[in-house]
Amino acid sequence: MAVIHGRKIIVKVGGTAIAGAKSCEISIKGDQIETASATTGAWRDFIASRKEWSVTCGHLIPASGTPLK
User: In whole angstroms, what is the distance from residue 33 CA to residue 11 CA?
Assistant: First the structure.
């Protein structure tokens, strides 16, 4: 799993900014499927499978500038 830490993320819907955050963390995970085949000499092979990601933001501020309650 990869984790990316960043700052100053902008949240947009349909191209319009609706909020911003002072900090964020993006987690990315990609599973692998193990396979074996007689044509490859029964060696293990790995193929890409489902990928997942999530974003966690801190200090979310709406575009209006009014703090969330």
Answer: 34
Confidence of residue 41 (pLDDT cuts 50, 70, 90): low
Dist. CA 62–CA 23, nearest whole Å:
14
| CA dist., res. 13 & res. 9, Å (int) | 13
C-alpha torsion sign, points 50, 58, 23, 20: positive
How many degrees, rounded to 5, is the angle at CA 18 between CA 1 and CA 16?
100
Domain locations in the chain as residue ranges: 2-62
Radius of gyration for the chain, computed over Cα atoms and rounded to the nearest angstrom: 20
Strands (E), 1-69: 2-13, 16-36, 44-62
The pTM of the whole model exceeds 0.70:
no
